[in-house]
Write a structure and sequence with these properties.
With 400 residues, the protein is an alpha/beta fold. The chain has eleven helices and ten strands.
Length: 400
């Protein structure tokens, strides 16, 4: 019996450690993922460069965003614009990304006479802010950018292109502003609480310790309180299933078929519920895989349709492969105007900036510990740093 008791305590100790580590990872994922670091002089196109024979410029701008935080921004546009306003796409990066990630948008859209506005959202890259909020405060950042573009009087229609957190931000802002002409949404999540519970299972996949469902739910409520206290937002506000039924601008959804971080069912659910004109592209690859030429072709065509840019000889097609007819920019076609200036690589950043995630080899999924005792659930929550009395009370309210 003594050996069994020791084994039980050892198993519980392992569970405590595993759960504490898992939830710490999730809290950091939500409000403080790794921050992109880069040198604008080395890793952003410009300040003058040519695409498809046309000279463009990068104009760096500081804007006051949500909570008065300074946003580091770059607006890419033709050096000679003419008198007519041009449409603009605002590129919104993922949770550990930056304006460096807009390089593909710049390469593809500028030849179509669509300007590109790139930003380090609050708490990201070189902008001010301690935390990211996965769309809550970032939506206010977008509002500040749109107001800036409108006030300048040089922009006609505006579209949004978002990846992951940026896609969530694009949906939330488009819901508030019916003037947005269209949105491209690459790998959004449908519900942050749901995603976090899925990630608990993913983080502990293949381990010897199961995750008690009740303990996970209760821990999620404590994480909610912690995030609310530190970063001043409620993770329950990030339920896009309640947003998309009243969002009407045209939308192009895309998601990696093998995405094991934000599974494809998140985008599929949002696409199904979305109220406006919509399309969905299932992409080969995972969350961070390079997007195929077909996705970029579709994106250019989509934005040309919804933004109605001025006529140009540029044609979508052969994106990412070079253009046989010379009208489309080949890979790496963003280059400095002066001889000897290096090409800007496709990603623009000093190293690939990935969404915070963990990769796992396929293993058998352990049986879930639905039968964990109250004392085990309490011990697990206490090991995560939660107050024992509050944990017991929460478990009683939850039936655990």
């Amino acid at each position: 019996a003594e050996e069994g008791t020791c084994g039980h305590h050892a198993s519980l100790g392992v569970r405590r450690w595993a759960m504490s580590s898992t939830w710490n990872k999730l809290v950091n994922l939500v409000i403080r993922p790794p921050r992109a670091q880069y040198d604008p002089n080395e890793h952003l196109p410009g300040p003058r460069f040519r695409i498809a024979g046309v000279t463009h410029v990068r104009r760096d701008i500081d804007l006051a965003g949500a909570d008065g935080l300074t946003l580091k921004c770059s607006h890419y546009e033709p050096e000679v614009r003419g008198n007519d306003p041009l449409p603009c796409v605002i590129y919104l990066h993922g949770n550990s990304g930056s304006r460096c990630d807009a390089t593909e948008a710049i390469r593809l859209l500028l030849p179509a006479r669509i300007t590109v506005f790139a930003v380090d959202l609050g708490g990201s890259g070189m902008s001010e802010g301690e935390y990211v909020t996965l769309g809550v405060r970032e939506t206010k950042d977008v509002e500040c950018i749109v107001n800036h573009l409108r006030d300048q009087g040089l922009t006609s229609k505006i579209g949004l292109w978002g990846t992951s957190m940026g896609a969530v931000t694009a949906i939330m802002y488009a819901n508030r502003d019916p003037s947005i002409a269209g949105v491209v949404l690459d790998s959004p999540f449908s519900s942050l609480p749901k995603l976090m519970l899925e990630l608990v299972a993913q983080f502990t996949k293949g381990s010897r310790v199961g995750v008690p469902k009740m303990a996970a739910r209760m821990a999620l409520s404590f994480v909610r309180s912690s995030v609310k206290s530190r970063a001043k937002f409620d993770i329950n506000d990030l339920d896009l299933k309640k947003v998309v039924p009243s969002t009407f601008c045209p939308a192009l959804f895309a998601h990696g078929k093998d995405d094991d971080f934000i599974p494809p069912h998140h985008s599929e659910t949002l696409h199904e519920l979305y109220a406006g004109d919509k399309n969905y592209i299932a992409i080969d690859g995972d969350h961070n895989s390079p997007r195929p030429a077909f996705f970029y072709d579709s994106t250019v065509i989509f934005f040309c349709n919804v933004l109605d840019p001025p006529p140009t000889s540029y044609q979508a097609g052969a994106m990412g492969r070079g253009s046989a007819n010379g009208l489309g920019p080949p890979v790496g076609a963003i280059r400095g105007r002066d001889p000897g200036v290096r090409d800007v690589d496709r990603r623009g950043s000093p190293a690939p900036v990935e969404f915070v995630r963990r990769r796992h080899e396929p293993r058998e999924t352990p049986e879930e510990d639905d039968g964990a005792s109250v004392s085990e659930n309490v011990a697990t929550l206490v090991a995560m740093g939660f107050d024992e009395a509050k944990a017991r009370a929460a478990l009683r309210r939850g039936g655990g």
